[in-house]
Amino acid sequence: MTALDQPAQTNHPTRIPFPTVDEIARHCHQSAEPETVHIEVHLPGPIDPDRLRTAFTEALHHHPRILMREAPGPWYRRRYEWEITEAPDVEVVTFPPPSRDALKQARTRTLTRTPPLTASPPIRLEAVTLPCGTALLLTVNHTALDGPACLRILATAAELYGGKDNSPTAPPTRPPDPAEPPTDTPSVWTPPARVAPGTPDPSPGGNGLLLTELPVPHRPKGSPYTVNDQLMVTTALMIAHWNREHGAHPRPMRITMPVDDRPRGTDMPIGNGTRLVEVTFAPDELTTSLDHRMAELLHRTATRTRALKALPRPQLGHGASLLTTPVVPVAWRATLTRGLRKAAAPWTSTTLLSNIGRIPYTLDFGEPAGRAHAVWFSAPARMPRGLTVTTASTAGKLHVALRWSRTLLGPGDGVHLRDLFEHYLHTTEQTEAHPK
């Protein structure tokens, strides 16, 4: 018997003040570039609409923190608040008619239509029939929830739907933390590089998206770095190469990396639970002649990322915590936050790399739908970053999502960046475990 066999406890409706991450996101919402998280899960077989709708709705009740909407309040209130509801306000699960472009259209909706905060829950699930199987697409309002939390809910739905155990697997064993502190860390006080403009998409507003599947990169046994470090180096080299091609002046590269320490069981806290750290690279670390220095670069990156992960820090830093202190009306804080965000744009990191890692759930929906063989995530790519990279591994494959602002890049640019990413990911494999 699993924890899902136990019925959820019914609580009286309650209100919860917006945490720091939620409030900052609420302040900075822009309809032109929606803050949605897109999750796409591919199953080998067909799925039954009624069973899926029932299972997903029941999963929401097993994780009642997701059944929430923004509570109304006067302009002078000190906080935004979430109101927990007893049931969904809207139909959460939909089934678009099968067509040649059904998947493409569903992806477009995930990038352009944000589930409103005023209706519980701020998440939508579309089940798209494919020639071979089913694609489940979740659209998440990032003001309220992040990708790992929503994946937990989908895993619960899979277990309720198919009766298969979807308990999380143990996280992979990591190499021991290095004893030495990071050295030669580039300064964080210099404005970082921006992704050079390509050929903007003529489509109005929103984000573009490209999904690809690659082999999980090989690491020599005993390597002091992880696959996440390889992905970090790959992303930095990809953008450095792109910027050189487009004549951009070399600047330090700064990459935002979400860190998630939450458990993955049914008791996983639901909401925005990651904290953000920034990994910096000096321009001379990302030159083209890397053959004899790749091991050194990977080792440096591993030292930096581990030090950042171990450093106690609020989710968005101390400044965000100060901005959300409820000493004045929240509407005043919203105006201040938007102004500071605009002023700080030149210091915003170059890009965001969100590595979900190995998917800890089987996501097995039973027969005939089957077990997920591909899972993609994509994170919002609003300006000034304009580009995000999100990765996850399933069934021995690395699933990569490149997402960009249409005001910065176009579909052809996405294809070229994908090719660069694949090239440099392969380059990280051609190295020894330790620098010479």
What does this protein look like?
The chain is α+β, with helices and mostly antiparallel strands and 436 residues long. It folds into 2 domains: 147 residues, 2-Layer Sandwich (Chloramphenicol Acetyltransferase), CATH 3.30.559.10; 180 residues, 2-Layer Sandwich (Chloramphenicol Acetyltransferase), CATH 3.30.559.30. Helix content is 28%, strand content 21%. It has a 6-stranded mixed beta sheet, sandwiched between helices. Strands 5-6-7-2-12 form a 5-stranded mixed beta sheet, with helices on both faces. The radius of gyration is 22 Å and the shape is globular. About 1% of the residues have low confidence.
How do you describe this structure in short?
With 436 residues, the protein is of the alpha+beta class. The chain contains nine helices and 14 strands.
Structural category is alpha+beta
Largest sheet: 6 strands, mixed
Q: List unreliable stretches of 5+ residues.
A: 5-10
- Portion in beta strands: 15-25%
CATH fold descriptor of the largest domain = Chloramphenicol Acetyltransferase
Q: Give the number of domains.
A: 2
